[in-house]
Structure formats: structure tokens, C-alpha cells
Design a protein that fits this description.
Elements: H1 2-12, E1 24-27, E2 30-33, H2 36-39, H3 44-49, H4 68-75, E3 79-84, E4 90-95, E5 101-103, H5 104-114
Antiparallel strand pairs: 1-2, 3-4, 4-5
Helix pairs in contact: 4-5
Length: 119
């Protein structure tokens, strides 16, 4: 139940989140690091958000209720991590090697945009 509430809050709210004293910026509804590099379009998170770096297809999902965004994050050679928002909500974040990050559930938005479901 707590996981469901966290997911709902993550997708539906516009809460404040700070990681390493950095807030996020939004690019086409995708939330990424608010860093000099990302603001100047020179970070991995930005490249993933604009789909310059494609998210690899996951061939087989881990059974047992694993967070699907963690697997997507790892497929991008990044590190998934749970952060706590100022409201004490759990937020899944995907950290890239250059220090930039993207909200992990926004990776699902990118996948849906590039692979829409048939009507």
C-alpha cells in the first residue's frame, strides 16, 4: 500500500525534491537534474529525456514485484536509488555516471512516448 501511495504521489504531484542540494528542472514533462550541465544540454539525463540516448528494451523483467524503473535505470548503465522528498515521500531516482539524474518513473513516460500502446 505504501508503494502504491508513493507511486501515486510521484506521478500526480508537483512536490519539492532536493538531491545533493539541487532541485530538478522539467523538459517535456521529464524531471532531470537542475545542474549547469543539464541546463546547457550537456548531461546524460538530458540526452535520455530528449531520447538522444534510447532506453534499451528489457527482454525479461525480474519476477517478484521488483521496481521496473530500477531495471530500466540499470539498462542505461546508471544507479537506481530511493531518495526522500521534503514531504517524506520515497522517490525513485536514476543516477548517471556524470552525476546527473532523472526521476526513475519518468523513464516509463519516455518508454510510453516512444512505444505507444495500440488503440
Amino acid at each position: 500500500m505504501k508503494m502504491f501511495i508513493s507511486i501515486f504521489i510521484l506521478l500526480a504531484s508537483s512536490f519539492a525534491f532536493t538531491s545533493n542540494n539541487q532541485s530538478h528542472i522539467t523538459i517535456d514533462e521529464i524531471r532531470i537534474s537542475d545542474s549547469d550541465e543539464c541546463r546547457t544540454k550537456k548531461c546524460i539525463a538530458y540526452d535520455v529525456a530528449i531520447e538522444k540516448i534510447k532506453i534499451p528494451k528489457i527482454k525479461q523483467w525480474t519476477p517478484g514485484g521488483a521496481n521496473p524503473t530500477s531495471e530500466i535505470c540499470k539498462s542505461l548503465d546508471a544507479q537506481p536509488k530511493i531518495e526522500i522528498s521534503e514531504n517524506k515521500d520515497e522517490i525513485s531516482i536514476c543516477y548517471f555516471k556524470d552525476g546527473s539524474y532523472i526521476f526513475a518513473w519518468d523513464l516509463i513516460k519516455i518508454l510510453k512516448k516512444s512505444n505507444p500502446l495500440p488503440p
